[in-house]
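Quick one, T. Sequence first:
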Amino acid sequence: MLRNPFKRKATTGQPLEETAIETSQELLRIVRRNFFLKNALIVTALAGAGWSMMNPEHLDTDDDHIAVIQVNGIIGSGNKTGSAQHLIGALKEAVATDSAKGILIMADSPGGSPVEAESVHHWIQDYRHAPTCTEGQMTEGKPNAGENCYATKKAIEVSIGNVCASACYYIASAADRIAASNSSLVGSIGVKFESWDFTKAMDTVGVGRRTLAAGHFKTLFDPYLPMDKQGFEVMRSQVLMPLYAQFTETVTEARLGKLPEDTTDLFSGRVFVAAEARKYGLIDDIDYGVSVLEGMSQRYDVEHHVEYNRVRSSFSSLFFGAVEHFGHAIGEGIAASIQSDPYQIR
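Structure tokens:
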């Protein structure tokens, strides 16, 4: 049973300093004797230190700065640095903040949902092509309600990290300027549908599957049933290829005048290192993230940057997340492969 070090008899006339010292010594003796408590405090201290390092205080946005928006991981609705809702929200906030002098998207993603990517791409394009407000369209430096214009226009640039492929590049192509490090991988412009085929394994085991479905193509991607050849051709010609055409046309329009006339190799689904990507017009410059940020800071004469969609980790989520991380990492890949939406541009 643990003793309560704070429940002690008051000593008449004992100085407060001596009382505090005795109490702290009593706490130390308890921790030394109790193995569980000692280790819990160590884990708590480490987690707290990690939490502090992961959550630096944001600079006051009243100071002139570069707005940094992270695009990390799979592009999709469940990702705070990859969903259209969060990314467009961060972009809107950066545009509306007067002290944000430029916007830098730090991109590091293998791709994901074309719907999410399309939404972000078109928001950026709409912003870039929207008119600047006239004096009659503004009040106190702000656009009047209902006016489809902006008081000032800010450049949106992209700095690519390890990789920016497919849906990630869908987003990046809308920017004013794209830079990538020498070793960055860029491109993978294409569309794919995927599913597992367990039919041979089921034959080996000697089990079957009964399915009732209305609609000839309803079970087309059922991994426990043979692929329907007619359904496969319909999906390829009427769904896959139109989506591919939409993707390539959107990129061509966004990078107007920068891509070669012959885009066969460019739109083959290949990824390119930075030198090739620049040759094909997929990027504008070879430069790494910190340098890009420093360059923007110099151009706009600012000293700071502010991250507008940083993932803020609470202490509890960090602590329990560390406990769950190992098991989650093992199962995540298998579960995602079997259960995820087969429609991806990656």
